Every structure is written in structure tokens, then in C-alpha cells.
Amino acid sequence: MDKTWISSPRRRLAGRFAGIMPEGLSAETRPQADHAYVTLVSNPDYLPGAEALLRSLKLTGTAADLVVMHRGLQPAHLARLRAHGARLIAADLLPTSEAFDRTHARGALHQRAAFTRGGKPDFHTPLDNFIKLRLWQLDYDRCIFIDADAVVLRSVDKLFEMPELCAAPNVYDGLDGFHRMNSGVFTARPDQRTYRDMLARLDRPGAFWRRTDQTFLQHYFPDWQGLSIHHNMLQYVWFNLPELWSWEDIRILHFQYEKPWQDHDKVRLMRPLIELWRAIAAGHPIPDLAAQARPAA
User: First CA to last CA across the chain, in angstroms?
Assistant: First the structure.
């Protein structure tokens, strides 16, 4: 196992950050480590999720940087994230064509590829999802991306030792999901050449990425390596596939459709999961997972 990145945690940091980031990014501060957990907050409605995620990561005792790529936030919003020790990096939309943007606008995309198995909130903006590709522009050797609607229940630092690109399958309503990846959690090794190649492949005439960044990443990394579902446990497993639910093994819990800080029609169905998220969001320690309610068989 290659651990050179671990043996020199500040390797190359001195010369890496001189106040200038690649085009489309703007960082407030220098990196403090050469590896980072990264999330994306593309509008203020995701702030509660990002705060809970940051709290949960800090509870694991990780030494990695905690990075929030953000867009459309006001100074008061940024102060909330900064209070959790986040390194803040402003991130623009990708420089895609007008045709690409029209095709992947919320109304056009949802009309062509509607979400029929869960409810996406009104603040979901599909075009923003592609900002995740700016991960490959960051000034780190290795990154773990985690969506802002997830919480980490056990340390996942071991993922920094995994190659690019590792992700868990998109399992939430049937076993066929094992053939698809979910981009709510994945490993990456930033590289400007990779980023430029991604842009070239992303925005081609007639391009349509049905599930935005998720579909593109699976296409770009056809040999993606699968993590266990416990590294990105999707909330719908709770009631669709309860036999797969194991509190003893779950490391990351992901609220992929309805959000736990919202009122929605599945609150009663998923109350134990929502209460767990709310405890973490309120600043409490991770509850005893062995004592958590089990899903109905």
C-alpha cells in the first residue's frame, strides 16, 4: 500500500498555495493537509446539511481538511460554515455551452428524466451538480467527496488509501442498483489534466447526462471500484430493502431524496433516521448505533 502521502502530511503545501487558485475557484485560506473531505453547497437551503456533515466528520477525529465548495452564499452563510472549521472555496458553474445548460436546466432535465421513486426538493438545481468536477482542480493529493445531505457515523479515513475512482453502488429500491454508482460519496485524486479532459468529454454536441454528475462520472470512470453500500447507505434502503440495513456496519448515511431538515410526506416512515440526523445537527455526539431502532422486515 502506497503511504507516501501519509508520511509527509504537509508535503508540497508550501509551494502549492500562493493565493491563486485555478480559474473558477477562489479559496479563503491555505490547505492545512494534503488530503481533504470535500462537499458542495450550491445554495443556502443545503446549509443545515453541510453543518451536520461537518459536525459528524469532526466527531470522527479526522486530521484531513474539511472543504466546502460553495456558490450563491451570503457572508452570514459562510460564517456558519467557517465556525465548523471548514476551508471555504468559492466555485463557479462549469464553463459549459448554452445548449448544454438548457438541456440540463431543472425543468428540461426533470421533464426528460423525471424522478419517479422519490421527491427531489424544490431547491435541487441539477446544473449545479456538475460543480463537483471542480474537485479535480483542488490543491490536494487525495480527496473524498461527500454530499451535503449525508452524515458520517464512523471514521472513513481509510478511503484516502483507496484508488480513484471508488464509489458505492446506487442501491435504494432494488438489487439492480448494484450495477450503478452513486456519486454521493467517491474518492478522487485532483489533477488539472483530468479536469480538462473531463470538460472536453462532458460538453459535446447532443450530450445528455440523465443523472448529471453521477451519470457522467460512471461514464468517465467505467472501471470504477465499488465500495460497500455501508459507505454510502441510502435512506430508502430503510423501507425498500430492510434486510440490507445493518447499524453495525454503516459508516455514511445519505438522505438522497427528501432531506431530514424538511417537513415531507415520509417523515413518519423514516423517523428513526431523521431523529439520528437531528441529534448530530444539534451538536450531540453520535448516538449509540447498536441501540438504534431496526427497520421493519
Answer: 40
Contact 17, 124 (CB under 8 A): no
Cβ pair 94, 199 in contact under 8 A: yes
Distance from the Cα of residue 62 to its chain's centroid: 17
Dist CA 160 CA 144 (whole Å) = 7
User: Cell numbers at residue 15, please?
Assistant: 509551494
The model's pTM is: 0.90
- List, for residues 198-242, the tens digit of each pLDDT value: 999 999 998 889 889 999 999 999 999 999 999 999 999 999 999
Q: DSSP label at 296? A: P
Q: Which three cell numbers stand for residue 281?
A: 445537527
Write the DSSP string, 227-262: PPGGGSEETTHHHH-GGG--TTT--EEE--SS-TTS
**What are the b/e assignments for 173-212, b being 16+ CB within 10 Å?**
eeeebeeebbbbbbbbbbeeebbeebeeebbeeeeebebb
Query: Hey, what's the torsion of the CAs at 283, 285, 287, 288, to 10 degrees?
Result: 180
Q: Tell me if 218 sits within 8 A of 181, measured CB to CB.
A: yes
CATH number listed for the domain at residues 4-291 = 3.90.550.10
Going by C-alpha positions, the residue among 180, 148, 161, 182 that lies closest to residue 66 is 148
Cell of 75: 457572508
Q: CA-to-CA distance for 18 and 8, rounded, in angstroms? A: 20
Residue type, 48: P
Task: Please answer whether residues 101 and 71 qualify as being in contact, where contact means their C-beta atoms are separated by less than 8 angstroms.
Answer: no
- The set of cell numbers assigned to 57 is 466528520
Pick the closest to residue 84 from 280, 297, 289, 291 (CA basis). Answer: 280
Using an 8 Å Cβ cutoff, are 121 and 45 in contact? Answer: yes
